[in-house]
Amino acid sequence: MPNNDEMLHALERMNKLLALVAVKGVENKEAVLTLLRAGYTQAEVASLLDMKVSAVSMIVLRHKEKVEAEKAKKPTKAPKAATAAAAATDGEGE
Question: Are 36 and 45 in contact, with CB atoms under 8 Å apart?
Answer without folding.
Answer: yes
